[in-house]
Amino acid sequence: MHPNIVSLLGFCYERPHMILVYEHVSKGSLDDYLGSEGKMTNLTWAKIADFGLSIFHPLDHKASTISATKIAGTQVYLDPEYERTHKLKKESDIYFFGVVLFEIICGRLAYDPVYTNENEKGLAPIVRQHFAKGKIREMVDPNLEEENTFTLSKGPNEDSLNTFLTIGHRCLVEKQAERPPMKVVIKELLKALNF
Domain for residue 3, yes or no? Predict the structure, then answer.
């Protein structure tokens, strides 16, 4: 198991209850931090969870499609192509990861009423609209725009932020085939971090 992915330890199915048991994440989850003024400034890279296909189908594995008519999950994270085809692919995980990237950069959960009042599918379609209009910077968390612990300048490094926004947006394209593979996403995130 990858050290940055929360491990599923087991499950229990005692009718009518179904319970998943994950490893304990002592510092809480991302939704504990998003929208909390004091906590966002202390946010460091945390483990991620719910990357089913990425776990079950490694990068070098060719069979990467599962047909499913019913899956569990929150609508705002759901791959739009899955809704049409009922086929989950590794690219579905890329989409979900893109939503999480934008939750971090925007400082709000994907299902925050700020987004769902504008579009029932939440954050992702609004990101695509803002990106198409060249207004994606308007969505960046104002606290992030103020913060920079490494230089005397105000706000994040422009190259870093633009690289992050661009790769995050590429993860959210509607067609699975047009999304980057995870190795490209990681490469771009490392580039953003190095800026």
Answer: no
DSSP the chain: --TTBPPEEEEEEETTEEEEEE---TT--HHHHTT-HHHHTT-----B---HHHHHS-TT-S--EEE-S---S-GGGS-HHHHHH-EEEHHHHHHHHHHHHHHHHHTS-TT-HHHHTT-TT-HHHHHHHHHHTT-GGGGS-HHHHH--SSSSSSSS-HHHHHHHHHHHHHHT-SSGGGSPPHHHHHHHHHHHHH-
How many structural domains are present in the chain? 1
Residue 83's domain spans which residues?
8-194
What pTM value is reported for the model? 0.76
pLDDT at residue 58, as a whole number:
46
The CATH number for 181's domain is 1.10.510.10
Q: Which tens digit of pLDDT belongs to each residue from 20-43? A: 888 887 777 777 777 666 555 555
Q: What is the pLDDT of residue 46?
A: 73
